[in-house]
Amino acid sequence: MAAFGVLAMMVLSVCFVVEGKYMVYNTSAGVGKINVHLVPHTHDDVGWLKTVDQYYVGSNNSIQGACVHNVLDSLIPALLADKNRKFIYVEQAFFQRWWRQQSDEMKETVKMLVSSGQLEFINGGMCMHDEAAAHYIDMIDQTTLGHWYIKRDFNVTPRIGWQIDPFGHSSVQAYLLGAEVGFDALYFARIDYQDRAKRSAEKKLEVIWQGSKTRGSSSQIFTGAFYAGNYEPPTGFYYEVNDDSPIVQDDIELFDYNVQERVDAFVAAAYFQANVTRSNHIMWTMGTDFKYQYAHTWFRNMDKLIHYVNQDGRVNALYSSPSIYTDVKHALDESWPPKLDDYFPYADRIDGYWTGYFTSRPTSKGFIRELSGYYLAARQLEFFRGRNKSGPTTDSLADALAIVQHHDAVSGTAKQHVADDYAKRLSIGYEEVRLSPDIMNPSSVKLLASTYFLVKSLPSVSESMQSKDVVATSLGCLTQSPLSSECKSPVTNFNQARTHALSFLSDLIFCCLQKHGCPLLNISYCPATEVDLSAGKKIAVLVYNPLGWKRTSVVRIPVINENLSVSDSTGKLILSQLLPIVNASLSMRKFYASAYTGESPSSVANYWLAFTAVVPPLGFSTYVISSGQSSVSTKFVPNSFDTGGIEVGHGNLKLIYSGKDGKLMKYINGRNSVNVSLEQSYSYYVGSTDELQASGAYIFRPNGTYTIQSEEKVLVFRIVLQLLLTTRVYKEKEHAEVEFTVGPIPIDDGKGKEIVTKLKTMIGNNKAFYTDSNGRDFLERIRDYRTDWDLQVNQPIAGNYYPINLGIYIKDDSTEMSVLVDRSVGGSSIIDGEVEIMLHRRLLQDDGRGVDEALNETVCALDTCTGLTVQGKYYLRFDPLGEGSKWRRSFGQEIYSPFLLAFSEQDDKWTNFPTPTFSAMDPSYSLPDNVAIITLQELQDGAVLLRLAHLYEVGEDKDLSSLATVELKRVFPHRKINKIKEMSLSANQERAEMERKRLSWKVEGSDTGHRSDSRGAPIDPVKLVVELAPVEVRTFILDLDPDIVQYSTR
C-alpha cells in the first residue's frame, strides 16, 4: 500500500493539455523501464451459450449479444487505419466461415495484413480445444485441420499456443500440442488459485514447462499464466461500445477531460503487474469474449493510451502480440523456473473445484469418443478406395469432430440447446443426408424442424460430405477387389453398426434419416441383424480392424432366431453363443427405438448372438450367420464355488460372487496367480446447493455420500436409482467388462445427484494413484498433495478428482489394479485401496460460472419426459507389479478403435464375397505391439498423411518401452513410395524447418539450454524404415505412385 502512496504523489507532477483539434497519435513502439505489450484479441467460443452458427451470424441475442461476423468485418478497416495496430485471431471454425464469404479484393487485403504481421493467427486450430475431456488424437486432428486452412490460404505457420480459457491444462498440451507442433510459447489464464498466489509472490507465473518425463528437455516450452487469472484487460480498460470503463477523453474543450487520470490508472496497473512478473516486459490481454464487434472503439482508446502514456514516460506502451512478447522474453537470455506434470485440478476459489465437468454430459462424451474412433477408420477406408474428389468424403465429420473438441463442447459445459446442436452436427457428419422428395415431404419437414435441422446453417451438408457413405462404399468395393481403384458402384450394400453410448440427446436426426442401419446397437436394436433366417436368408457380417496388428475380439449382435450358426469366410463353423437379453434392456429398447425411429420395432430380438472374430491388421474378415445346426451354447450356468460363492469365467480369469447377496468378492487369474479380494459398489453424492457454491456443470461440490443397495441377488441386477449392471468375462481375455446403464437419476426429493462406482481392494497404494493425460502419458497423483505448493485442503473429494480419458490405476509392491474407460470421466482414489469413477450427473442448481443453467438433462419422447439415461462400459484387470501396462496400452487402443461392423442381407444361394478377407499390409507383417497408426488419410491434393505413435513411456514396460521400427514398404506393399517428408505434428511444415526455427530456453538448475532429444533416426528414403522412441509421435507426408506394384520385402 505504501508503494501506491508514493505513486500517487509522483503522478501529480505530470499534466496533459490537448486542444480541440485533429490529433495524430504516436502509436509506434519505444523502449521504457516497464514495457506494456498491448495484445488486442477476441475470445470466440465455438458454441457455449449460443450455437456456433448463432455466434457467427449474431442471432439469438436475447441470450448473449455476440456476432463474430461483426468482429471480423470491423477488424479489417481498423487495422488498415494504422500500420502499428495489431490483432491476433484463434478460432478457424469462425474465420473460415467468414473467409468463404469474402471477395477476392478483401482476401488480398487480409493476406497483406497477415504478411505484415498486423493480423496474426495463433493457436490456429478449428477451436480452442479442451484439455481434460479431449483425446490426444482429436486434439491433433482439430489442430491439423485449422493449420491446414491457414497454410493453404496464407502460407504461414502459427508460432504460439493460446489456451486462455480451458479449465486446467494437460501435460500433453505442453509437449505434444505445444513443442511438437512447433510452438515457441504457450499462454493461458486458468491455474489453481493457491498455485497462482504462490507463483505471483515468487514471480514464477512464467516457466519452462516440460510436459513429458520421457521426451525430456525436447518437450520443453516457455509457458505463461496470466497474472489475474483471466484473459481480460486490467479493470477499467474495456472499450467495447457498451462497456462501462471510462474512455480516454482528450479534448480539452469538452467536459470530462481525463487524460491524466487515465494515464495514472494505466501506470498503476502496469506497476502492479510488474511486481509479479519477471523482467520489465508485461502483457495486457486487450479483449475478452466476443469483443471488437466495433473495433474502432478499442483501437481509438488504445491509440490514445499509447500516445499519452509514452509522453508521460514512466512506462512504455506498445501494440504487440504474443509472438513479439515471446521473442522479447527470449532475447533476455535469462533462466526460467522449471515446471513438470500438469495444471489439474483447477480451482478458482475455496470450494470451487472445476472437476465436475470431467464427467458432465456423459452421453455427449461417449458419442464424441465413438465417432472419433469411427473417423479414424473411415479415413483409412477412404484411402484404400481412393478419395472421391466429387464427394462424398469424410470432411463433414472432420469439421463436426473438430468443433466439438471446443472447451465448452466435449467438456459438457454448454447450454442444452447448444449440446443438442453439437450432437446434430456429429450425426450429420456421420449419416447420409439427401434432400430427396421423400425426405422433404410435409411430415418429414415438420419432424426435421422439430429437431432444429437447418440445412442452410451447415454448408458441408449441401456438399454431401458424409462419412457413412464413404465407409459403406469403400467396404463394398474392397469386398469386390481390394487392389482396384475402379470401383464406383459396389455390388454389396452394407449397413453399418454404431453404438453411440446411448446418446439420448437431440439425435433424432440420425434415426429418422437412416432406418436400416444399426445406430442403436447398444440398446439391442439392429434391424439389419433382426432378420428371420428360418426361410434360408443369411446375414453377411464384415468386421473391419483399424489397428495395425491382428486382433481377436468378441462380436455381439441382436437376433430373433434361436437355431443359428456362424461360419467364417472358409465355411468353417465357429463357436458362438446365444445370450438372453434381460427384460430391463428389452423395455429400454422398445421405448427408445420408438422414440428415435418414430415407429415401434417390427421384431423382438430376444438374444445376443456372440462369436469371436479374428481380423488381420488394417483389414477385415467376413462371417455368415444362417439358420441351422451349430455349436451354440444357449444357456450360461455359473459354477459353484467351494466357499458358497458363485464362480463366473471359463478361462484364466474367474470372478467370485457371493451366494448370499450377489456381490463381487474375488478376482482370480490362474495364469499369473493373482488372487485378490474385490468389492464393487455404487454410490451417489448429493450435489451441494449452497448459495455460495453449488455443484453444477463445471463444479463438483458434494454434500453427503450414499451407497446404492441392490434389490436382487443375481449377476445382472436392477438397483435403485435405475442402474442396470452387466459384468462380462470372456474366455480368452483376462479382464472383466462392466456395462452400466444409469438413469434416469431421480430428483423427486429436490436433490441433484452424482453417481459413482467404487472398486475396493486390499492394495496399499499409500495415497498414490495414476491417471492418463488425454490418453497418453500416465501421471502420478497423490491424494491431498500438490507438487508445486502446500495444498490447503478444503474439498477432500472434489479436490482429488482428475480427468481420465484412458484409465486409472493403483499399485503396491506386488499388485496393480487398472480400470480403463470408454469416454472421458472424472475419478480418483479417495481411500487407499479404492478407485472410484463418476458415471453420471444430474444437478438442479447453476454453479455460477456463466452457463446460467442447471445440468439437468432430460429426454422427451412419446409424450413422456424423463431424465437422461447413460450407457457405457469400464474394464477392470489386476496384474503383478510392472505387468499392467501391456494391457492398458494394447487394450486401450482397442477401446478407442473398436471393430467396425457392417451387415448385408443375402439370399440362400449366396456363398461369399469375391474378397472375403483383406489386409492392406503385407500378409506376413504387422506393426510392433508398441506402435499404432493414429492417422492414415488421403489429402485433397492426393498426398497421404501418416502418423505413427509409440504407445509406451520410458520405463513403463521392460520389453515395450524401447525403440520400435515400422517398415513402410510392408505397410504399403502395393504402392511405391516416391517421396516421403517428415512434418511437424500438425503437418504444416517440415520437421527439420520446425526444429531449426524453434526457440531454445534456459532453465533454472540446468547447465545448458540445449534440447536433448531421444528420437528415432531420420528416415532413409530407400529403406523406408521409421524408428520411434518411447512416446514419440512422427508425422509424414507420402507421395505414393498411383500404380499398383509388388514390393520385395527383403
Report what the structure shows.
This protein is α+β, with helices and mostly antiparallel strands and 1050 residues long. Strand 29 (723-729) and strand 30 form a beta hairpin. The chain is 24% helix and 25% strand. It has an 8-stranded antiparallel β-sheet with strand order 28-29-30-41-36-35-32-33. Residues 352-426 form the Glycoside hydrolase family 38 central domain. InterPro entries: Gal_mutarotase_sf_dom, GH38_C, Glyco_hydro/deAcase_b/a-brl, Glyco_hydro_38_C, Glyco_hydro_38_cen, Glyco_hydro_38_cen_sf, Glyco_hydro_38_N, Glyco_hydro_38_N_sf. Residues 1-20 form the signal peptide. Pfam families: Alpha-mann_mid (PF09261), Glyco_hydro38C2 (PF17677), Glyco_hydro_38C (PF07748), Glyco_hydro_38N (PF01074), Laman-like_dom (PF21260).
Give the helix/strand layout:
Elements lengths: L1 H10 L23 E6 L11 H6 L10 H13 L6 E3 L2 H9 L3 H13 L2 E3 L14 H19 L5 E3 L8 H9 L5 E4 L4 H10 L3 E5 L9 E6 L33 H16 L6 E6 L8 H18 L3 E4 L2 H10 L3 E2 L1 E2 L22 H24 L9 H9 L12 H15 L11 H9 L8 H4 L4 H14 L14 E2 L11 H6 L24 E8 L5 E9 L4 E4 L5 E2 L1 E5 L2 H15 L9 E9 L3 E9 L4 E2 L5 E2 L5 E3 L4 E5 L6 E6 L4 E4 L1 E9 L14 E7 L8 E3 L3 E7 L6 E7 L10 E8 L7 E5 L5 E5 L19 E3 L2 E5 L3 E7 L3 E4 L5 E9 L15 E4 L2 E4 L2 E11 L3 H13 L3 E7 L11 E2 L11 E8 L5 E7 L13 E4 H4 L3 E9 L7 H7 L4 E2 L21 E4 L4 E12 L6
Parallel strand pairs: 1-8, 1-9, 2-3, 4-5, 5-7, 6-11, 10-48, 17-20
Antiparallel strand pairs: 6-7, 12-42, 13-19, 13-42, 14-18, 15-16, 15-19, 17-18, 19-43, 21-22, 22-23, 23-24, 24-25, 26-27, 26-31, 28-29, 29-30, 30-41, 31-38, 32-33, 32-35, 34-37, 35-36, 36-41, 37-38, 39-40, 44-45, 45-50, 46-49, 47-50
